[in-house]
Amino acid sequence: MDTLVHAFIHSECAETSIHVALNDAAPLYRDAPEAAEVRQAANEIIKRFMREVLPNAPNDERKPGR
User: Fold this and answer.
1) What is the DSSP letter of 52?
2) Spatial distance between the Cα atoms of 26 and 43, rounded to a whole number of angstroms
3) What is the C-alpha separation between 8 and 18, in angstroms, rounded?
4) Would you call 1 helix, strand, or coil by DSSP?
5) Cα separation of 16 and 10, whole Å?
6) Are the C-beta atoms of residues 62 and 46 closer than 8 Å to each other?
7) Where does 1-66 have alpha helices with state H?
8) Tell me, what's the pLDDT at 29?
9) Smallest Cα–Cα separation from 33: which of 44, 22, 45, 41?
10) Which end is more exposed in the chain, N or C (fewer Cβ atoms within 10 Å of the end residue's Cβ)?
11) 3-class DSSP state for residue 31?
């Protein structure tokens, strides 16, 4: 069990630098014009999917996160 805990803690510490780097870079890719385009395209895909699987539901019930 100690080996498992040690391995888990070691992997979490190793990933910390990656998480910090991604967090630091987030504004660069999150706020990029290309990111907005991708988000809009993804939202359209989700809306289309929801209309297909819930054709009789009102629009407000098909919103993601409900």
Assistant:
1) H
2) 20
3) 16
4) coil
5) 10
6) no
7) 2-30, 33-53
8) 85
9) 41
10) N
11) coil
Which residue matches tokens 């991604």? 22
Question: Look-up: residue for tokens 């395209």?
Answer: 41
Token pair of 4 as six digits: 């498992």
Measured in degrees and rounded to the nearest 5, phi and psi for residue 65 equal 90, 0
The CA distances from residue 37 to 3, 22, 24, 31, 66, in Å, are: 46, 20, 22, 11, 24
Is 58 in a helix, a strand, or coil? coil
For the chain, the straight-line distance linking the first and the last C-alpha, in angstroms and rounded, comes to: 41
- Dig out the tokens for 10 from the structure: 């070691």
pLDDT by residue for the chain (66 residues), tens only, comes to 789 999 999 999 989 989 999 999 999 888 899 999 999 999 999 999 989 998 998 888 877 665
